TrEMBL record:
Record field: transmembrane: none
Name of the protein this chain belongs to: Signal peptide peptidase SppA
Biological process according to GO: proteolysis
Organism domain of life: Bacteria
InterPro entries from the UniProt entry: ClpP/crotonase-like_dom_sf, Peptidase_S49, Protein_C
Keywords: Hydrolase, Protease, Serine protease
Keyword Aminoacyl-tRNA synthetase listed: no
Similarity comment: Belongs to the peptidase S49 family.
GO function terms (MF aspect): serine-type peptidase activity
Span of domain Peptidase S49: 143-283
Spans annotated as Disordered: 290-317
């Protein structure tokens, strides 16, 4: 355990074992039993203040037991993680119990005054027991409210498993994330005891009752059984991270339980952004409340965005807004081809909404359109647009009309082109694509006027043209002012 944890524990049990002081190896400091007891007493007061605030208290809200700032509930994950640490919602004695995280998470999810949840992490990890039960509950609630894990110094092993349950993860530049692995230890003291003239005899019933005891060497069959248990726990851990982070299990295993620092954690796909705790908190508060945080310089390294998802000068709350709009949606039906549905499903998955099923309805089949009439209408519309000097049509739009492409496929093509030019998923979901990311039109002004054609005017023309070609699926749309 950490020295600070040991100091608090020894403050309670030290007198029973005649402990007079604790030597802290980091700086060689010596802490006397009096100070240890004082630290333990202070910690005990804090524990007692919230020890009854657990999931069995329906009379309490998150605002009663958690720090709720501007609609965002803060859940602290500190120190070593254990299955149980007395209930309540706060870390105590340097430990955080999974029962505490579960209680805090439940309060935050149930309280209607909470619009977002920030999980504030600084922990090296902890026990396997009850971890998978906790993350299963957190994953089941995913999407109900925006969530962000903010890793301070370290979020490793079991702490990283908790972080992965959130919609996104940030880490400080010098912070650490990862350690997706499982470990246990067997100590064999038999040689030391023999040298000291001590012989231990274990008397037991059941051949495996004393398996793994420290007074004899570890038999091969017992070692194999322990390894099998470790492998099973590891598989569960890997599967959880792969699902939560949208990675393949092979990619997760390829990390080989390494701990990655800052930008390297982004490159490994384990976190989304490198940000200070203060900036990450401010950005999340702004996103949850529909405000604009201070724009950041975009950085493109890694498998996922490492800073703001918005382009410079644009609002950075697009992703959070999209999350709120799409939260709770399990399926979509579009008017278009199956290829359109597949492309849309892929785009949604890339944006973190892989659970939404997308199906397609063939507009042409429902409309019973006549092929010859449709072709003739295309020819007529193209001829009219060529004759009108005030009509502006991009090369991509002309190709779409000539080829009979439907509106859904054309929209996906525009989005794909914009993304290739540097637009992020947040831009595409919010429609915040920059002018220099749009397909070239070949013209940039109204003929004879010298005035730049606005996006709204272009959108009006495109929608009118789509409607004239029978694309009723866009009839409900209107251009932004």
């Amino acid at each position: 355990m950490l020295p600070s944890t040991a100091a608090i524990v020894l403050g309670v049990v030290g007198p029973r074992f005649d402990v007079s002081q604790l030597l802290l190896h980091a700086g060689g400091d010596q802490v006397g039993i009096g100070e240890l007891q004082q630290r333990a007493a202070t910690e005990r007061l804090q524990i007692e203040a919230r020890q009854n605030a657990d999931g069995r208290r329906p009379d309490l809200n998150a605002t009663d037991v958690l720090l709720v700032q501007d609609g965002v509930a803060h859940i602290d994950v500190r120190g070593e993680l254990v299955a149980e640490n007395g209930g309540g919602v706060s870390p105590s004695s340097g430990f955080t119990g999974y029962d505490a995280v579960m209680a805090a998470w439940g309060f935050a999810q149930r309280d209607t005054n909470v619009r977002g949840i920030a999980v504030d992490i600084n922990s090296p990890g902890g026990e396997v027991d009850d971890l998978m039960e906790l993350v299963a509950v957190m994953m089941a609630d995913r999407g109900k409210k925006p969530t962000r894990a903010i890793i301070r110094g370290v979020g490793a092993s079991a702490a990283y498993a908790i972080a992965a349950c959130c919609d996104e993860i940030t880490v400080q530049d010098l912070g650490f994330a990862g350690s997706v692995g499982v470990i246990c230890m067997h100590a064999d003291f038999s040689a030391q005891l023999e040298q000291e003239g001590v012989k231990v005899t274990l008397i037991h019933a059941g051949a495996h009752k004393a398996d793994g005891n420290p007074f004899e060497a570890l038999p091969d069959d017992v070692r194999a059984e322990i390894q099998a248990r470790i492998d099973h726990s590891y598989s569960r851990f890997v599967a959880h991270v792969a699902t939560a982070r949208g990675m393949s299990e092979d990619a997760v295993r390829a990390t080989e339980a390494r701990v990655f620092q800052g930008e390297d954690a982004v490159k490994a796909g384990l976190v989304d952004k490198v940000m200070s705790w203060r900036d990450s908190q401010a950005e999340f508060l702004a996103a949850v409340n529909g405000r604009q945080a201070n724009p950041k310089r975009p950085r493109t390294s890694g498998n996922r965005a490492s800073m703001e998802t918005a382009m410079p000068g644009e609002p950075d709350n697009a992703s959070a807004a999209a999350s709120q709009v799409l939260a709770g949606i399990t399926s979509m039906t579009i008017v278009g081809t199956s290829a359109n549905a597949t492309a849309l499903a892929t785009a949604l998955a890339a944006g973190g909404f892989g659970d939404i099923a997308v199906t397609a309805v063939d507009a042409a089949a429902g409309a019973g359109a006549n092929t010859e009439a449709t072709t003739a209408e295309r020819t007529r519309v193209l001829a009219l647009t060529d004759l009108c000097p005030e009509t502006i049509m991009s090369a991509s739009l002309r190709a779409a009309i000539e080829g009979g492409q439907d509106a859904g496929a054309f929209a996906i093509g525009l989005a794909t082109a914009a993304k290739t030019r540097g637009a992020t998923m947040g831009d595409l979901r919010a429609g915040a694509v920059q002018p220099d990311q749009l397909p070239e039109t070949g013209k940039d002004a109204k003929a004879g006027t010298g005035k730049t054609v606005t996006g709204a005017e272009q959108a009006t023309g495109i929608l009118a043209l789509a409607a004239s070609l029978g694309h009723r699926s866009v009839a409900h749309l209107k251009p932004a002012g």
